[in-house]
Amino acid sequence: METRFVDQAADLEQLCRDLAHSAFVAVDTEFVREQTYYPRLALIQIANDRLIACIDPLAIEDLSPLKALFADPALTKVFHAADQDLEIFHLLFGELPRPLFDTQVAATVLGQGDQIGYAALVKEVLGIELDKSHTRTDWLQRPLDAKQIRYAEDDVRHLAQLYPLQLAALQRQGRADWLEEDFAALIDPARYQADPQNAWRRVKGGNKLRGVQLAILQQLCAWRERLAIEKDKPRRWIAADNILIDIARLRPKDLKALEKIRGIPAGLVQRNGQRLLQCVRDGEALPKDQWPSLARPKRLTGADDALVDALSAIVKLSAAEHQISPATLAGRKELEALVHGQRELPVLSGWRRRHGGRQLLEFLEGGSQIAVQAGRLTLTD
User: Same fold for the domain at 2-192 and the one at 302-380?
Assistant: First the structure.
């Protein structure tokens, strides 16, 4: 395959012209975000079945030819575990590449693994062991040496080989339309927009708080999120999760009480103490009907637990029929939620509903039963 390192605007324009009539392009990025809120794009890799290019976004100011290529509806954009790459392109271009194909998502319905990593998928399908020696490279440094560039190229070299094989397998098995909703969800812009008011949901340990404590945590996390965005700094550099949880739990009334919280940095109190106290007051002032809440799993009775086991057996039957992992259809927590009456669940939408979720509902509604026939477990009317 032809390889190029593109660090001139004219060369990028030519590359995009050369790729424009392809059926697909495989895409990956290298980025760094340890010291920033937003990822700092360092390299874009792109390939079709004949050409691999590494694009240097640090050297090229105008990436609009790439934006136009990504907007071409006749050109499928292929990623593996696309979320972080799509976040970058949403920030960069204000829109998302479409149509899209994600090889990690496709692997789940091809029996190649649930949430399988790129290196594992390449080994599983192509029998190639990828070099992992540059996984900790600082991709913002220049110049990049030949080994680093080769490593980056491999991220799309093999992706361009995986896509036709997966697409052919999906078509052969009649599953080419299974993933339309999954791919549509990946290119929903709302997925990549910051939401300070819901930032509290990502805080580890937040499930230990109750009532007004959660209202205070919501205010604290929204403040931290906005400040992290404004300063482009990691959230943990503004304030660690455990500190925000302790503030929400203890509800300090003044700076003296705030300073007594175990482990709170003196600099945080000096710089933002009054703002933290205002978050506490704002949370306490919220009417009770506006307090955020967490969906807490209900305790399973013995009968509920047995019913979940029965649903798990149905999931395993459906998964075996389609030669996919049961976890791809539904995990145990999702089945517990189903028993408790929840219906806004992944197993009840898209291909999962057609090939597993519908059977679960029929069983719960008494329209089918589990039976043993000729020594085998079956689901019968």
Answer: no
